[in-house]
Amino acid sequence: MALPNGPVATSSKAEAVLFELIDVYDRAYEAAAAELSLSSAQACVLGRLDERRGMGALAEELGCDASNITQIVARLEGLGLVAREPNPRDRRARLVARTPRGDEVNHRFAEAFTFARTAIGRLSPDEQDQLTALLRKALG
Amino acid sequence: MALPNGPVATSSKAEAVLFELIDVYDRAYEAAAAELSLSSAQACVLGRLDERRGMGALAEELGCDASNITQIVARLEGLGLVAREPNPRDRRARLVARTPRGDEVNHRFAEAFTFARTAIGRLSPDEQDQLTALLRKALG
DNA sequence: AATCAATACTTGATTCACTCAAGTAATGAA
DNA sequence: TTCATTACTTGAGTGAATCAAGTATTGATT
Q: HTH marR-type domain: from which residue to which, for each copy (chains A, B) (predicted)?
């Protein structure tokens, strides 16, 4: 489990609750991944392959070095969850796609990671809209 | 930068905004730590030493193995930010405390990590209360 | 057509976080 | 006095992440 990101001195109740939410969310994500013997990073990459795409696109979206993606994808490939195919349009590039097993594992991960769904589900539709509006405003 | 924890398929707007918030929060935390040449884990441990305490207490609070804390504290000690003192009441145990430099770095970290403060600050006091109530309800 | 910088990705080296198993030393209860 | 427990450290191993350097291909320029 990664250590929580915070709290520094929380200066308001809202900040403290926000931190708690994030901590619980992050831990739930990691735990769901661990149920499937995946790391958070692996679950993250697997979840972004609904469509086949290049390594570079993944690195850019995830804001990390390309070599990091190379590594993570290599492990997922070793697990039989993704496949790297040559890109017919550009022989430098490779397209990554989930295998059928990868689809299944990804699906099971989505089922195992219930936290966000459950948390949101505790709110009425009206409350969900309020929360969405507040968070959007907070995000600026 | 750690890869983001999500989104799987986001099944509602609220879930998507929540994920975005968490992603931005986590990245801001890591970036603030990086400004001070700290890792997230180091900033986290440093931030939990407002009072001197034992290694075991830290490990329990942070939900990780004691040996993980040993390592992180050793690095912080190497940086001169914390000190390990013998516990006069129990010679097996050691008490960890921030040094004056550690206090200063921790203070600067709290200043550098503006995200949560800023985000909450975009809301009126009433809205902050609403958000707190909604998040508490969502947390169950 | 030939050249060459830019692009897409990989490889290798290094650091750190994290976990588990095993070890040491001190404590406290029988 | 014995011995399990506690508190922490050490060592080994994995994975994430970054950086620097390398390869192959592409595409623009001459």
A: 11-140
